[in-house]
Amino acid sequence: MDELELLKKDWQKKEGMMPKLSYDEIYSMIWKKSSSIVKWIFIISIIEFILPHLLYLLPSVREDMGFYEQLGVKNLMIGISVFNYIVVFYFIFQFYKRYREISVLENARDLMRRIIRTRRTVKHYIIFALSLFLFSFLAIASVIYFSDGEHLITVLNLDDEAKDLSPGRLKALISFVFIIVGILFTALIGLIYFLIYGLLIRKLGRNYNELKRLEI
Amino acid sequence: MKKDLEHKFVTELEDNQNIVHKVCSLYTNNRDAHNDLFQEITIQLWKAYPKFRGESKFSTWMYRVALNTAITLYRKSKKQVRTQDYNDFIYKIKSDDYDETQEQQLKLMYDALKHLGDIDKALVFLYLEDKDYGEISDTLGISEVNARVKMNRIKKKLRTIVNP
Fold first, then answer.
1. Site from A12, A40, A107, A202 to mutate, B interface, most B CB atoms within 10 angstroms
2. ipTM for the complex?
3. pLDDT tens, B84-121?
4. Domain-located, residue B87
């Protein structure tokens, strides 16, 4: 006999050996909470959307507005914020729309594709948020670099520290620090985000690629 | 009204629970994981049940949801102890039905089955459940030709394992 036919026959005989759950056991299960990947993606994505905006609620970050005003970049920062919020709402809308389209009743390939698409929206949001973050730092750095040195010393309260440095060198130093901090922060947050992203989507991506490979 | 739906669902699932158990036995290695996956599949079935309009048989509909959950939605919970001591029921082979060679062959094939990738498992599972290639390709979202090609490759692989 063909080995696979043997396996098939044996497999079908296994019916009787499977565990048997009672009506009550199954009934209690339908009220349990799902721990599916889709639910995790939803929760984590929402946190990722909200978290950067919670920072603005901290008093120290709010006081920064005064600092930006003195530096003369207040309008620039307000402009960036407005642009930021418009784009963020667009991303949240896209995310929600795609999330709603996920259905367990689709075939395996379409289900995976929809989940990956939903999560990809978050990836694009993250890339956007990080770019804007880095851009803000670079913008401030260049404003400082091209600003009036004496004025800068008063704004930043650097009278004591500035004694040994010429205003020109001080400006260069401060904008350099801004650029470095900006790059480091962006890299760090990006690393954390993409680590989470990769972990969440790893198994899914592997299976999806395997299905896709079948189509070649 | 809601109570009716609950009752109808649980009764149908109780009658067809074998399908879910078989999926769980293929995709997990111990009793805890088996029960965990069973529960997640039940939740997904129940969530999708209002959309089940009886166009197909309840059991047909279950295959898709159960496999989708096992392959895509299910996240192994970290709490599970990863023990292998649980003597999985799919390995239990009744010796009086087979001669020694067949018994050995079956054991090797079940072992090999456990080591297949998630997608390959789904293909073999549907094949063992006597589904035709049309249904297999519908469930997985690949073409019928590709389902056949892939299945033939897996068959070949299993044969070489049994007859090295």
1. A107
2. 0.84
3. 444 455 555 555 667 777 888 888 888 888 888 899 99
4. no
The minimum CA-CA distance between A107 and chain B, rounded to whole Å, is 5
Same domain membership, residue B3 and residue B77: yes
Chain B environment of A5 (Cβ under 8 Å): none
Extents of the domains making up chain A: 46-214
Q: Is the pLDDT of residue B162 over 90?
A: no
Residues 3-62 of B with CB under 8 A from A: 6, 9-11, 13-14, 17-18, 21-22, 25, 34, 38-40, 42-44, 46-48, 51
* Residue with tokens 């009886």, as numbered in its chain: B54
At A18-37, the pLDDT tens digits run 888 999 999 999 989 888 88
Q: Residue B53: give the domain boundaries.
A: 1-81
Q: Are residues B121 and B152 in the same domain?
A: yes
Please state whether the predicted TM-score (pTM) of the whole model is above 0.90: no
Give the CATH number of the domain where residue B155 resides: 1.10.10.10
Q: Which of B81, B111, B132 represents a domain boundary (last residue)?
A: B81
